[in-house]
Amino acid sequence: MREKQIGSIIVFYAIAVLFRFLAVKTNLFHFADNEFLKILLRGIGPTIGAFVSITLFKIPLKLSLKGNYRNLFLPLTIFWIFPVILIGTVTFIQEGRFPIMLLFTVLVYGLLEEIGWRGFLQEQLKNLPKFQSITIIAVLWFVWHLNFEFTPSNMIFLGVLILGTWGIGKVYSSTYSLLAVAAFHSLNNFFRNGLHEKELILIAVLLVIWIAFMVFYKRKFKTHTQTSELTND
To answer: Ranges for the CAAX prenyl protease 2/Lysostaphin resistance protein A-like domain (predicted)?
Structure first.
């Protein structure tokens, strides 16, 4: 990597870790009484770090909510509105409440992280071998959570982050949509009381629908592009 890239990554990561530390290890952000705002403050560091690095190092990086999709409405509906309606409805039927604010807060939190991890860092490391890039992102992501104890649960968490880095990374390289990767990022965070049968079923349903949609759209878009090229010829 070039010195400019290394410098931009150092600045990005230093800011991301600093804001994470301030949010979870100090009382600095305790001015916020709103529970949802507190959640967002824990994940804002990667976004701030990314934009500071992009500005400071004049990186020509295009961050997009819609990515390869033709309009913003499509990924917003499939990856954000649909899971909120699905999970919210199931929760309402079982618990008598519709946690719409919590669900959207979780999605925004995922977006704040993904602007940094995928939108910035994955792009900066895209010229490295795939395994090397995934390892670097996963380790930095793990340390960013300030998990320094080598306990079995933390090692499992590191494994999950490695798998997540690979999977969410593929979603990003396929769609370049920050809305899409934020949704995949949020799958586990949607369920604050742990993963049980209901939660696992909902995750499976969302994964099947999202992946099927991505494959269908990619094939349809590819076919449309090829048809247009033939027509133009």
So the answer is: 98-191
